[in-house]
């Protein structure tokens, strides 16, 4: 995140911070709900205005004196981190309640930060005559308040102008053009995703709790390890559908899917104490459908009583359970102790490397000829499958097109045979590969094997 300016949205719960966040970035990324405390972790998104790019940060609502809120101290800590990292802070209040004691306490915290503060009074949804109650907010000590409506967008252009005016006075961070591997950390609730992120980052980057479902927003963390940059995405745990009875949880599932879509490699965490479950299988299915490279980490391995065969037996059983993704590598880790945590990056690098593999058409057809000689194509009712040639058309994941005489003769079993041969010949570890089948009429080739 260091190669762009950062702007943080701060305020007490339910003043419209997440709605404003979504309005400014132009998409529904943050959770919006009337329940105070819904946005728990910091949420980043890129924003651009007048050719100035910056990261916008949505934070959990600050309830300074709320000792009954279970996540109060964690949210307060996350918000303070966001304040410390921000170049500009948007302090959001709302017109309907006026200035309340929590606003005054937050104002004290912000004044100590010595950051550029833009005071916004939200929920001024009616245009026209200025609401006289707006003048009350001068008491917060940040000069003229800016009236906005995050729902309708009134005043957001002026807000962005103010942000850019502050940022234009600062030195623009240099743009980073180095290659970054995007890694989404996925899995069931309470499998240790946030703990792993915190162990890697060396700081309390995400809220950690024993209560399943703590992380509802997807969190990005940019790190540099062994001269390679990684963007780690901590996601909300995906529950069984029968347990998804909150609209908030449904948004989390949607965002987890989006996190998978924008990742290069997915890191699935499995709780060693719970073994592989049907829900883990469904999550892997999402990864497979998205065509993403994958690594599986068996977390909390330090809590398992072991003998000489424990690891081998666990891996053998898991390989059987994930036979539909047998190419995935498995690592046994402990996010708590750090055991083999950094070995994950070796496997992530391998999966990423092979997801980008390009194989020349010449090599592919040499491979195809040898594979067909070894095991001839199948026949059906006297008709034999003919494969004229194959070529690679894309990467991430590698996609291969086969030109054949009849699609219906190219049975799944023979496709699986060719996939296994392809993986053995070109070491395609950690990545799915896809086959596209086209009939001869769709091509102009006369080649035949």
UniProtKB/TrEMBL annotation:
<comment type="subunit">
    <text>Associates with the 50S ribosomal subunit.</text>
</comment>
<dbReference type="Pfam" id="PF01926">
    <property type="entry name" value="MMR_HSR1"/>
</dbReference>
<dbReference type="InterPro" id="IPR005225">
    <property type="entry name" value="Small_GTP-bd"/>
</dbReference>
<feature type="binding site">
    <location>
        <begin position="234"/>
        <end position="238"/>
    </location>
    <ligand>
        <name>GTP 2</name>
    </ligand>
</feature>
<comment type="similarity">
    <text>Belongs to the TRAFAC class TrmE-Era-EngA-EngB-Septin-like GTPase superfamily. EngA (Der) GTPase family.</text>
</comment>
<keyword id="KW-0677">Repeat</keyword>
<dbReference type="InterPro" id="IPR015946">
    <property type="entry name" value="KH_dom-like_a/b"/>
</dbReference>
<dbReference type="InterPro" id="IPR032859">
    <property type="entry name" value="KH_dom-like"/>
</dbReference>
<dbReference type="GO" id="GO:0005525">
    <property type="term" value="F:GTP binding"/>
</dbReference>
<feature type="binding site">
    <location>
        <begin position="11"/>
        <end position="18"/>
    </location>
    <ligand>
        <name>GTP 1</name>
    </ligand>
</feature>
<dbReference type="InterPro" id="IPR031166">
    <property type="entry name" value="G_ENGA"/>
</dbReference>
<feature type="binding site">
    <location>
        <begin position="187"/>
        <end position="194"/>
    </location>
    <ligand>
        <name>GTP 2</name>
    </ligand>
</feature>
<dbReference type="GO" id="GO:0043022">
    <property type="term" value="F:ribosome binding"/>
</dbReference>
<dbReference type="Pfam" id="PF14714">
    <property type="entry name" value="KH_dom-like"/>
</dbReference>
<dbReference type="InterPro" id="IPR016484">
    <property type="entry name" value="GTPase_Der"/>
</dbReference>
<feature type="binding site">
    <location>
        <begin position="58"/>
        <end position="62"/>
    </location>
    <ligand>
        <name>GTP 1</name>
    </ligand>
</feature>
<keyword id="KW-0342">GTP-binding</keyword>
<feature type="binding site">
    <location>
        <begin position="299"/>
        <end position="302"/>
    </location>
    <ligand>
        <name>GTP 2</name>
    </ligand>
</feature>
<feature type="binding site">
    <location>
        <begin position="122"/>
        <end position="125"/>
    </location>
    <ligand>
        <name>GTP 1</name>
    </ligand>
</feature>
<feature type="domain" description="EngA-type G">
    <location>
        <begin position="181"/>
        <end position="356"/>
    </location>
</feature>
<dbReference type="InterPro" id="IPR027417">
    <property type="entry name" value="P-loop_NTPase"/>
</dbReference>
<keyword id="KW-0690">Ribosome biogenesis</keyword>
<protein>
    <recommendedName>
        <fullName>GTPase Der</fullName>
    </recommendedName>
</protein>
<keyword id="KW-0547">Nucleotide-binding</keyword>
<feature type="domain" description="EngA-type G">
    <location>
        <begin position="5"/>
        <end position="171"/>
    </location>
</feature>
<comment type="function">
    <text>GTPase that plays an essential role in the late steps of ribosome biogenesis.</text>
</comment>
<dbReference type="InterPro" id="IPR006073">
    <property type="entry name" value="GTP-bd"/>
</dbReference>
<dbReference type="GO" id="GO:0042254">
    <property type="term" value="P:ribosome biogenesis"/>
</dbReference>
């Amino acid at each position: 995140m260091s190669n762009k300016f950062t702007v943080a949205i701060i305020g007490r719960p339910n003043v419209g911070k997440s709605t404003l966040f979504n309005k400014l970035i132009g998409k529904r990324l943050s959770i919006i709900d009337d329940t105070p405390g819904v946005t728990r972790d910091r949420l980043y998104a890129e924003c651009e205005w007048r050719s100035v790019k910056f990261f916008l940060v949505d934070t959990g609502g600050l309830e300074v004196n709320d000792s009954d809120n279970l996540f109060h101290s964690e949210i307060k800590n996350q918000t303070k981190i966001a304040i410390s990292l921000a170049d500009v802070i948007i302090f959001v209040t709302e017109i309907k309640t006026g200035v309340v004691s929590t606003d005054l306490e937050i104002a004290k915290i912000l004044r100590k930060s010595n950051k550029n503060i833009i005071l916004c009074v939200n929920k001024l949804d009616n245009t026209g005559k200025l609401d006289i109650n707006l003048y009350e907010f001068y008491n917060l000590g940040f000069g003229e308040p800016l009236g906005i409506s995050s729902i309708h967008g009134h005043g957001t252009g002026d807000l962005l102008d103010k942000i850019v005016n502050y940022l234009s006075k600062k030195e623009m961070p240099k743009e980073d053009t180095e290659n970054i591997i995007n890694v989404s950390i996925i899995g069931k609730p309470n499998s240790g995703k946030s703990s792993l992120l915190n162990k890697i980052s060396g700081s309390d980057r995400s809220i950690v709790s024993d209560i399943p479902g703590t992380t509802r927003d997807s969190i990005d963390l940019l790190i540099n390890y062994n001269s390679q940059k990684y963007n780690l995405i901590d996601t909300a745990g995906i529950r069984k559908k029968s347990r998804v009875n909150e609209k908030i949880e449904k948004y989390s599932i949607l965002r987890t899917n989006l996190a998978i879509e924008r990742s290069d490699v997915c890191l699935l965490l499995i709780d060693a104490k719970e073994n592989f479950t049907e829900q883990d299988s469904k999550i892997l299915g999402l990864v497979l459908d998205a065509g993403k490279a994958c690594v599986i980490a068996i977390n909390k391995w330090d809590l398992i009583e072991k003998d000489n065969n424990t690891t081998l037996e666990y891996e053998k059983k898991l390989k059987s359970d994930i036979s539909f993704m047998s190419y995935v590598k498995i690592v046994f880790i402990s996010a708590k102790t750090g055991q083999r945590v950094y070995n994950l990056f070796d496997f992530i690098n391998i999966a990423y490397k092979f997801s980008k593999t390009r194989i020349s058409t010449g090599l592919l057809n040499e491979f195809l000829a040898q594979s067909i000689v070894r095991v001839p194509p199948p026949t059906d009712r006297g008709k034999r499958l003919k494969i004229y040639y194959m070529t690679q058309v894309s990467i991430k994941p590698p996609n291969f097109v086969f030109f054949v005489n009849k699609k219906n003769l190219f049975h799944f079993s023979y496709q699986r045979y060719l996939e296994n041969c392809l993986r053995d010949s070109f070491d395609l570890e950690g990545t799915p590969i896809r086959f596209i089948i086209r009939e001869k009429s769709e091509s102009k080739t006369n080649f035949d094997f």
